[in-house]
Amino acid sequence: MRKELQLSLSVTLLLVCGFLYQFTLKSSCLFCLPSFKSHQGLEALLSHRRGIVFLETSERMEPPHLVSCSVESAAKIYPEWPVVFFMKGLTDSTLMPSNSTYPAFSFLSAIDNVFLFPLDMKRLFEDTPLFSWYNQINASAERNWLHISSDASRLAIIWKYGGIYMDTDVISIRPIPEENFLAAQASRYSSNGVFGFLPHHPFLWECMENFVEHYNSDIWGNQGPELMTRMLRVWCKLEDFQEVSDLRCLNISFLHPQRFYPISYREWRRYYEVWDTDPSFNDSYALHLWNHMNQEGRAVIRGSNTLVENLYRKHCPRTYRDLIQGPEGSVTGELGPGNK
């Protein structure tokens, strides 16, 4: 009888320990290690060439709600793909406090297919044309370093591992059916807020070479959408879009502005307005919310019935439930390097 009791207690203890281990991985333990993994783990994670990549090049550790919505919506649309969020503020030994201090961080790290990794630019740029540039640059003297370093990092990551890069103000609404693509912001003009390639695609290598050869941080977008556009013109003879049809050149698809930019940057405020009937966005794969334009700090407010509130409610319901407040305690968007 005593042996049976001891065995029963041992089994119960093992079950309790296992439950507590899983609980600490997925809940608000006092000092939780986030779910990022080693550099070798990253290579294994993205080895299948299909993943979604987000970037945070500031030291910020708590993502604003728009970032949370972007990552959550991607994880929801691509449940079988790894969604990798690189954060410069993370290190391999980072300890995080409870989710009462960092609710968005804790929430994202608990999503099964979301993985948080440190952004080590020096290591990232190794074996690319960007390495010598990075070692020579004086980041503190650069006017737009957060954005420039983001422009460089996204090129290197997708060149090395493949997959789809998205800015952190892009809400995914349906899967992108392309492998090698650029997203048109307007006719004959490419963005760099969303793009995807298989690993080691020569277009991205040439983009990194051009990044260094024509580096000029005083010109806004010179290392970003302007770079993508001038390189696309080298590769392709750009034409105007016909209706809502994509263009193809060699093995690159140039996707119609409706795919990601159905509301242009000049009309960005429309996301924060009440529509008589919300648009269907049937021709779109994701929506770029132009958060960089939101210098006036327009908010997502629970119960406002604005277009952006309805997008949150549908495409990132957990972010909406946990992070969006009512009129008296509204949470405004915060600008970041991935919010262009």
Write the layout of secondary structure elements.
Elements lengths: L1 H25 L12 H7 L6 E5 L8 H13 L5 E5 L15 H7 L4 E5 L2 H4 L5 H7 L8 H17 L1 E4 L3 E3 L8 E6 L2 E9 L4 H12 L11 H11 L11 E3 L2 E4 L30 E3 L10 E2 L6 H9 L1 H7 L7 E2 L8
Helix pairs in contact: 3-4, 3-11, 7-8, 8-9, 10-11
Describe this structure in words.
The strands form 3 sheets. The protein has an 8-stranded mixed sheet with strand order 3-2-1-4-7-6-9-8, sandwiched between helices. A two-stranded antiparallel sheet has the order 5-10. A two-stranded antiparallel sheet has the order 11-12. The termini are far apart. It has 11 helices and 12 strands. It has a domain at 42-260: Spore Coat Polysaccharide Biosynthesis Protein SpsA, Chain A, CATH 3.90.550.20. The protein is globular. The model is unreliable at 19-40 (pLDDT under 50). It has helices spanning 2-26, 39-45, 65-77, 103-109, 121-124, 130-136, 145-161, 202-213, 225-235, 307-315, 317-323, and strands spanning 52-56, 83-87, 114-118, 163-166, 170-172, 181-186, 189-197, 247-249, 252-255, 286-288, 299-300, 331-332. It is an alpha/beta fold.
Terminal CA distance reads: 69 Å
Computed structural class: alpha/beta
User: Count of DSSP helices?
Assistant: 11
User: Could you say which overall geometry the principal axes of the C-alpha atoms support?
Assistant: globular
- Assign a percent range to the helix content: 25-40%
Order of strands, widest sheet? 3-2-1-4-7-6-9-8
- Uncertain stretches of 5 or more adjacent residues: 19-40
Total beta strand runs: 12
Q: What is the CA-based Rg, rounded?
A: 22 Å
Secondary-structure element string: HHEHEHEHHHEEEEHHEEEEHHE
| CATH architecture annotation of the domain at 42-260 | Alpha-Beta Complex
